[in-house]
Amino acid sequence: MMPSNPYICGDGGGGNEGGISDGTTQARNPLLCYVCNDYFAEPCLLSCFHTFCARCLRGRLIDGKITCPLCSQPTQLKDNSSVPPSDLLMRQLIELANTENPPCANCDKRDRASMYFCSTCGQALCNHCRENTHRAKMFSTHDIVHMSKCSKEVHRRCAMHGEQYIMFSMSQRNMLCVNCFRDTPAEARLHCVDIDTAYTQCSKKLESSLLAVRDIQTSVHEGVMSYRNLLEELQRNTDTEKMTIHSFCQGMQEAINKTQASMVLEVQRQFEGKERLFKSSLVALSTVLPILQMHLLLCQ
Predict the structure, then answer these.
(1) Domains in the chain: boundaries
(2) pLDDT per residue as tens digits for the range 252-265
(3) Which fold has domain 101-156?
(4) Least confident stretch, 106-120, 172-186, 232-246
(5) Residues 51, 87 contacting (CB under 8 angstroms)
(6) What is the pLDDT of residues 185-226, one digit of tens each?
(7) In the UniProt record, does the keyword Metal-binding occur (predicted)?
(8) Measured between alpha carbons, how far is 134 from 139 in angstroms, rounded to an integer?
(9) Residue 123, strand partner residues
(10) Does domain 1-100 bear CATH number 3.30.40.10?
């Protein structure tokens, strides 16, 4: 039986480049597609292990690849396929969910607390549709029961013979009513146990598997948190290195500018000193030149 509470999809979503909420901070039903937010229809599994409806992935194929709407990781399709391979596990879970909590035949609403089943029509009905579609006189003889009672009754009795299940075949992995058990070959009966024993054994196996999955979930969660911390530390270190490089280059630039200004001032100082010297010498020589010319004239 499918649990009624939604699962916690914690930290499994990776990045969020696709603009879709990854659901890491809130409870989310894992049977819902991240794109259409409805129960999976033809669930397809990408190479990043994210699952989406086939209809939600159509039109996203580019150069033989589909980019994950959740983490943006590309998935290479094979054999000219237009969609990734089917997610068989999710398909089974959806089938089981539809058995336990089928949508209303009229409006597709799912609300287990207010769902009914019309045995005459063989359809599930929400409370609203039950009140509106099955109030007419022509439906007065229809057998309508609450979905919880219907599910229990369906799972309790054999679909072929209508008898209650009493045995479980460990080899065939199916439940048997008294008629099914009677029709079972003698050698196959050796692998059958009563339904209560089978339930106890399977419950123990399920509990063991559940604990193992929880351990894996814990390890994955710790790994995700560890890598997130590493990414944050990497970002901090990168920012620190950038600031250090910027400060170093800024200091070097200031030192270069200061040295440049000092050298320019020194060159200017030397120029002015030599300029004064040369001008003084020029004035002195200019003063002597007329005197020399006068003496030359007198000598002539």
Answers:
(1) 1-100, 101-156, 159-279
(2) 999 999 999 999 99
(3) Double Stranded RNA Binding Domain (3.30.160)
(4) 106-120
(5) yes
(6) 888 888 899 988 988 888 898 899 989 999 999 999 999 999
(7) yes
(8) 5
(9) 118
(10) yes
